[in-house]
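Reviewer 2 asked us to include a model.

Predict the structure of this chain.
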Amino acid sequence: MKCPFCSHSDTQVMETRVAEDGDFIRRRRQCASCEKRFTTYERPDVTFPAIVKKDGRRIEYERAKLLASMNLALRKRPVSTEQVDGAVERIEEKLLNLGLREIASTRIGELVMRELKKLDKVAYVRFASVYRSFEDIDEFKTLVDEVRR
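Predicted model (structure tokens):
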């Protein structure tokens, strides 16, 4: 495994942990050259369904995009990286369990909103306000009232 900091090819595994649900292995590594530490994750290689965008385009599923959109909604919120990783894992598990070759991006958006609602109400409102493209303040108010209940 190459070091992400100095690209040196000699890294040593310092610690290995199996995730709580057993779906992946987390490894802490240290570079033999620059001595910096970093984390890697070992997951099974699986095929996710293609994502069908609103305009009909089909794109490959990218975990990084899902993670980035969730992190944007969770920016400056008190939610740990482990909680976010867990939410992404649950979304991916649902995608795989559906057994579909294609899935609408709107369905993934709904899965993200469900997970964000569990993690952080403010992040949920942030994501929903962009995702649902509110036209006026009343739609936004309805969402906030829904979250308050």
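Residues 46-148 form one domain. The mean pLDDT is 90. We have added this to the supplementary material.
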